[in-house]
């Protein structure tokens, strides 16, 4: 470690401001000092919080140095002037740091990082790769010195030029009337930029954007030759150049069209930095002092590139700070482990919704097809993430690296405030993403064209929908990123009764209307919208928008948890307890009609199910007990519970991964894996099953005469019971079930 620091409070005439103070190690603890008034900074008393220390590595120290250089240029060149209590005067050149820092700050330098409060997250806004950046404050006129007013003063555009290795710069003052840039000095040579590309939208900078410069790691820029700020054409003096240390050097094969892809990323990974249990800058009294909230911070910024190699991916770019004594590689691998479990659960749940009549073997085959590395690599490339990375010749696109990155994203979103719902939204936008990114042109028969017009108008008949499905199957339309999965999906469509197809397509109509395109919808688009709707809301799951009755709106709730929400909000979701009416209520019962159609002949199953319900020490939503009892009966019925067991196994892995990730923030991926496996083994689950009420064991014994004590049936029964709790009572109740029964069985890895 090259530097240590303390948390302090600066009390000014504007009130208390909290800062993170970086002090070189040899200075030790300082009792306090006074800062004389400087330009942009009032006089202040500084008080240290004794014992609240942190340590920074060389790259992180460089980050703070860059951050401090920018802040002091904005606030003025001389604050603070003196440190009276330590008896030393520091010339201002100690703070005018060079734009490239090869070594950490040398003593006796002091640097600050502003914090909004000691209990809130850093208030940093999102910095888009194609929308915002930091300005060269030294070129600002005096009217811009007032730091809080910068948000109304600075505008510009993103500029990319091939004349400097496709470097990406930010030019302030450039508007839509300018078509070329000129007279940028690069070293001792004058270069005229006539070949450049500008973003379509102006940049508006806010004062809270400025600290984002701290996320730029200079070492990631490597040995690339960077231009230096020079003199511009006097006739174009309003153009200001972003300091080169804040520029992104793009790989030679960079596809400029991919910049537009980045516009989707804030919606996709807005929670990527909200890693609750691992991102801390300080310990002790102020554990939240250095946490950066995922809602207000975005990992993809100008100046960052993705690392190559296993465990170094998108999720790592969240903050210059990390947990003490935990390497970034361990953090990446932990998120990958969590994301893998979450991905497996959501895919299992979605497949049960898409293919309720499929066999267990078919469902497992579909799941393996979806989560294989090649599929996840494809999804990562669809997001355009590899375009931001410098890929070596040895790193193949089909390697496990990009699959790991996708799982890291899923794990990061899962730790955010939206949890499983955020992950489902992410998968809805990426997992079923088609290979056709734009409206495809195809020549359709007149019959199909008319049917498509009726589809887009929302008044298609069932036979017209059938004609479209048959035509799509004949043309082998690609819906999923896997051709094999697309074929299976189309076969599934062919098996749907004609009278039910119209409901399937209603889900896709909303996406068609909201796309904003005036092009006629093709067969590809209809199938694509259908697939996206099915993933997010399942077949026919929609409710009418109150403001516009013509457009259906997807319910923002996973279908598997619709039952207990229907009890809580019957006006919206309908009632399943008495009369199953309403778009969601009727479809829930239809979705599980094969399950619910079973009526076990033995009354023992019902008695055992009621005994389990009575013994559950978990929060059960009011009104869900009748449905829970029915599902528990299925969980205890041989030859029926396999699908429940498949879902319960996936949820158990997901829930255990989250609990262990939260409780043990410093353990490695390997240790967490061993701990999870210790609790999800058939032996442990069998022991838990045998501790259930005696009627449960009687039902199992009657159904399997001569069953051995270590039989796998006991473990499978526990997982099917867990799935029944999940379906009837929701994720919170199922997580509580795992936490109280399974988690204590974990063997702590030492």
From TrEMBL:
<dbReference type="GO" id="GO:0004525">
    <property type="term" value="F:ribonuclease III activity"/>
</dbReference>
<keyword id="KW-0255">Endonuclease</keyword>
<dbReference type="Pfam" id="PF17895">
    <property type="entry name" value="Dicer_N"/>
</dbReference>
<dbReference type="InterPro" id="IPR041279">
    <property type="entry name" value="Dicer_N"/>
</dbReference>
<dbReference type="InterPro" id="IPR036389">
    <property type="entry name" value="RNase_III_sf"/>
</dbReference>
<dbReference type="InterPro" id="IPR036085">
    <property type="entry name" value="PAZ_dom_sf"/>
</dbReference>
<keyword id="KW-0677">Repeat</keyword>
<dbReference type="GO" id="GO:0003723">
    <property type="term" value="F:RNA binding"/>
</dbReference>
<dbReference type="GO" id="GO:0000166">
    <property type="term" value="F:nucleotide binding"/>
</dbReference>
<dbReference type="Pfam" id="PF02170">
    <property type="entry name" value="PAZ"/>
</dbReference>
<keyword id="KW-0378">Hydrolase</keyword>
<keyword id="KW-0547">Nucleotide-binding</keyword>
<dbReference type="Pfam" id="PF00636">
    <property type="entry name" value="Ribonuclease_3"/>
</dbReference>
<keyword id="KW-0540">Nuclease</keyword>
<dbReference type="InterPro" id="IPR003100">
    <property type="entry name" value="PAZ_dom"/>
</dbReference>
<feature type="domain" description="RNase III">
    <location>
        <begin position="328"/>
        <end position="418"/>
    </location>
</feature>
<dbReference type="GO" id="GO:0006396">
    <property type="term" value="P:RNA processing"/>
</dbReference>
<feature type="domain" description="RNase III">
    <location>
        <begin position="589"/>
        <end position="730"/>
    </location>
</feature>
<keyword id="KW-0464">Manganese</keyword>
<protein>
    <submittedName>
        <fullName>Dicer</fullName>
    </submittedName>
</protein>
<dbReference type="InterPro" id="IPR000999">
    <property type="entry name" value="RNase_III_dom"/>
</dbReference>
<feature type="domain" description="PAZ">
    <location>
        <begin position="126"/>
        <end position="251"/>
    </location>
</feature>
């Amino acid at each position: 470690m090259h530097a240590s620091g303390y948390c302090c409070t600066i009390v000014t005439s504007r009130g208390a401001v909290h800062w993170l103070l970086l002090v070189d190690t040899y200075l030790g603890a300082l009792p306090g000092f006074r800062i004389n008034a400087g330009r942009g900074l009032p006089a202040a008393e500084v008080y240290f919080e004794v014992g609240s220390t942190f340590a920074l590595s060389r790259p992180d120290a460089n980050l703070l140095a860059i951050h401090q250089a920018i802040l002091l240029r904005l606030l003025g060149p001389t604050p603070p002037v003196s440190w009276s209590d330590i008896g030393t005067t520091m010339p201002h050149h100690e703070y005018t740091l060079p734009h490239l820092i090869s070594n950490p700050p040398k003593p006796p330098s002091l640097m600050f990082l502003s914090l909004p409060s000691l209990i809130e997250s850093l208030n940093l806004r999102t910095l888009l790769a194609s929308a915002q950046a930091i300005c060269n404050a030294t070129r600002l006129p005096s009217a811009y010195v007032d730091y809080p007013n910068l948000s109304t003063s600075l505008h510009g555009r993103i500029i990319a030029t091939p004349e400097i290795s496709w470097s990406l710069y930010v030019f302030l003052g450039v508007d839509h009337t300018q078509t070329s840039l000129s007279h940028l000095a690069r070293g001792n040579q004058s270069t005229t930029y006539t070949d450049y590309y500008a973003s379509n939208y102006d940049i508006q900078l806010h004062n809270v954007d400025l600290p984002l410069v701290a996320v730029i790691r200079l070492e990631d820029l490597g040995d690339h030759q960077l231009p230096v700020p020079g003199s511009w054409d006097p006739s174009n003096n309003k153009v200001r150049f972003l300091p080169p240390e804040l520029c992104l050097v793009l790989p030679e094969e960079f596809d400029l069209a991919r910049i537009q892809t980045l516009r989707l990323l804030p919606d996709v990974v807005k929670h990527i930095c909200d890693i609750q249990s691992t991102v801390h800058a300080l310990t002790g009294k102020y554990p939240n002092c250095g946490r950066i909230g995922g809602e207000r911070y975005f990992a993809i910024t100008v100046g960052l590139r993705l690392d190559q190699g296993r465990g170094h991916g998108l999720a790592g770019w969240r903050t210059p700070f990390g947990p003490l004594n935990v390497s970034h590689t361990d953090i990446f691998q932990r998120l990958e482990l969590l994301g893998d479990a979450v991905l497996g659960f959501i895919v299992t749940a979605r497949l049960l919704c898409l293919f309720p009549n499929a066999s267990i073997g078919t469902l497992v085959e579909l799941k393996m097809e979806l989560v294989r590395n090649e599929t996840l690599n494809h999804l990562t490339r669809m997001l355009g993430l590899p375009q931001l990375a410098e890929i070596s010749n040895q790193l193949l696109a089909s390697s496990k690296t990009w699959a790991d990155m996708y799982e890291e994203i899923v794990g990061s979103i899962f730790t955010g405030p939206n949890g499983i719902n955020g992950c489902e939204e992410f998968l809805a936008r990426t997992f079923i993403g088609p290979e056709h990114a734009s409206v495809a042109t195809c020549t359709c028969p007149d019959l199909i064209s008319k049917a498509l017009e009726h589809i887009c108008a929302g008044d298609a008949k069932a036979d017209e929908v059938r004609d479209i499905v048959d035509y799509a199957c004949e043309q082998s339309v690609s819906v999923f990123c896997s051709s094999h999965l697309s074929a299976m999906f189309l076969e599934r469509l062919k098996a749907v009764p004609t009278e039910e197809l119209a409901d399937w397509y209603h889900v896709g109509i909303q996406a068609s209307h909201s796309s904003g395109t005036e092009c006629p919808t093709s067969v590809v688009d209809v199938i694509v919208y259908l697939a996206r709707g099915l993933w997010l809301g399942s077949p026919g799951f929609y409710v009418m928008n109150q403001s516009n009755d013509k457009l259906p709106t997807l319910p923002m709730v996973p279908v598997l948890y619709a039952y207990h929400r229907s009890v809580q909000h019957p006006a919206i979701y309908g009632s399943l307890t008495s009369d199953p009416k309403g778009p969601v209520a009727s479809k829930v019962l239809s979705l599980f009609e094969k399950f619910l159609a079973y009526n076990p002949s033995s009354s023992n199953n019902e008695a055992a199910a009621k005994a389990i319900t009575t013994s559950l020490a978990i929060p059960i939503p009011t009104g869900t007990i009748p449905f829970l009892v029915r599902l528990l009966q299925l969980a205890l019925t041989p030859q029926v519970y396999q699908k429940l067991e498949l879902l319960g196994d996936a949820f158990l892995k997901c829930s255990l991964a989250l609990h262990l990730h939260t409780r043990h923030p410093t353990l490695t991926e390997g240790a967490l894996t061993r701990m999870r496996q210790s609790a999800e083994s058939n032996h442990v689950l069998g022991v838990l099953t045998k501790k259930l009420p005696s009627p449960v064991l009687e039902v199992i014994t009657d159904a399997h005469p001569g069953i051995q004590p270590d039989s796998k049936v006991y473990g499978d029964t526990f997982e099917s019971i867990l799935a029944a709790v999940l379906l009837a009572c929701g994720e919170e109740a199922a997580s509580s079930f795992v936490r109280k029964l399974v988690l204590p069985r974990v063997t702590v890895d030492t």
